[in-house]
Write a structure and sequence with these properties.
Number of helices: 9
Distance between the termini: 17 Å
Radius of gyration: 15 Å
Oligomer: single chain
Helix content: 40-55%
Largest sheet: 7 strands, parallel
Strand content: 5-15%
């Protein structure tokens, strides 16, 4: 059981959120994720992939350290907000943890303020790329990059922004891609931006 090995002060938080034992994909993906391996996690919607990257991120983040440590790229506002919400729920017992969602439809001025102190950021490709390229979201402290719904992020509408964001990340980082399918584009992104990823 992976979940009791998570930070001890978070166990009640997990139970309150309805996590009693890991789903099959969580059972397989959490141990290598927590060890820092690059992962391609392929599983249908509703099987617990969000918790895989949230737990991996929360284990890795040093809440006392400033700066963005985990960046999650999501294809839609709804998926980004869902990811940020799960991270805030499961990370609520970690003192000082700062989670933020960066999406279109929210004022850019508000996002610029959040970007200064955020440790775990979840956002859509267009808004993230804008904040990074304009210098409001610093990436030099990023240690984990997550592509949530990676198959959608690699469709023509998002591919350029997603690739640009990956190119702006530090060379030394963990990359986790979560996807319902395994398209050719994901294989080529894996080859370019990941180090011997485990396919789960």
């Amino acid at each position: 059981n992976c979940i009791p090995t998570f930070r001890k002060n978070c166990i009640p938080t997990f139970r309150n959120a309805g996590f009693v034992q890991p789903s099959p994909v969580q059972l397989l993906a959490l141990p290598p994720g927590k060890l820092g391996f690059d992962l391609i996690v392929q599983s249908k919607s509703g099987t617990g992939k969000t918790a895989v990257y949230v737990v991996t991120a929360l284990e890795m983040i040093k809440s006392a350290a400033p700066g963005l440590q985990c960046l999650v790229v999501a294809p839609t506002r709804e998926i980004a907000v869902q990811g940020a919400t799960v991270a805030m729920q499961l990370g609520s017992a970690i003192p000082g943890l700062k989670v933020a969602a960066f999406i279109g439809g929210i004022s850019l001025a508000e996002d610029k303020v959040k970007a200064r102190s955020c440790q775990l950021g979840v956002g859509t490709p267009g808004r993230l790329k804008q904040l990074i390229t304009e210098g409001f979201l610093a990436t030099e402290t990023v240690r984990l990059v997550v592509l949530d719904e990676a198959d959608k992020l690699l469709e023509p509408a998002f591919l350029q922004d997603t690739t640009d964001i990956l190119n702006l990340m530090p060379r030394s980082k963990q990359v986790v891609a979560l996807s319902a399918t395994y398209p050719d584009q994901l294989a080529s992104i894996a080859e370019r931006f990941m180090r011997s990823p485990q396919h789960i």
